[in-house]
């Protein structure tokens, strides 16, 4: 397994500082036709998440987007795919970057 991927997932899980995660494996429908569910939800502890990295990588290679967030209520704001302008706007409105899975 690629050490870079394992390190990135470890940093993300550690930064969230929780014991249980909700994992979502989303596959967009192609032309509205698919035999697979659009979202495969999972609830895993950190040990299960780390043991499943290979399977998650495989699912990603098959077109699924992988989402990881803390289970239940939490004080995190999880954002993705932001432009530099959107980040600047968030900063000006009071959001602060505390920790990141991708330094």
Short description:
This protein has four helices and three strands. It is α+β, with helices and mostly antiparallel strands and 103 residues long.
Report low-confidence residues grouped into runs of 5 or more.
none
CATH architecture: 2-Layer Sandwich
- CATH level 1 name: Alpha Beta
Largest sheet: 3 strands, antiparallel
CATH topology: Dna Ligase, domain 1
Rounded to the nearest angstrom, the radius of gyration is 15 Å
What's the total helix number? 4
Mind telling me the CATH superfamily name? RepB DNA-primase, N-terminal domain
Strand order of the largest sheet: 2-1-3
Distance between the termini: 21 Å
Number of structural domains: 1
Sequence of secondary-structure elements: HEEHHEH
Arithmetic mean pLDDT: 86
Shape label:
globular
Q: What is the helix content?
A: 25-40%
Structural class: alpha+beta
Strand content: 15-25%
The number of strands is 3
Structure description:
This protein is α+β, with helices and mostly antiparallel strands. It has one domain (3-92): 2-Layer Sandwich (Dna Ligase, domain 1), CATH 3.30.1490.240. It has four helices and three strands. The protein has helices at 3-16, 46-51, 53-61, 84-92, and strands spanning 20-26, 39-45, 65-70. A three-stranded antiparallel sheet has the order 2-1-3. The mean pLDDT is 86.
């Amino acid at each position: 397994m690629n050490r870079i991927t394992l390190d990135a997932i470890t940093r993300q899980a550690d930064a969230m500082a929780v014991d249980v995660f909700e994992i979502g494996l989303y596959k967009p429908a192609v032309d509205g036709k698919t035999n697979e569910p659009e979202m495969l939800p999972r609830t895993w502890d950190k040990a299960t998440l780390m043991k499943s990295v290979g399977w998650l990588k495989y699912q990603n290679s098959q077109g699924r987007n992988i989402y990881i967030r803390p289970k239940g209520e939490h004080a995190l704001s999880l954002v993705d795919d932001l432009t530099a302008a959107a980040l600047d706007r968030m900063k000006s409105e009071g959001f602060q970057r505390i920790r990141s899975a991708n330094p």
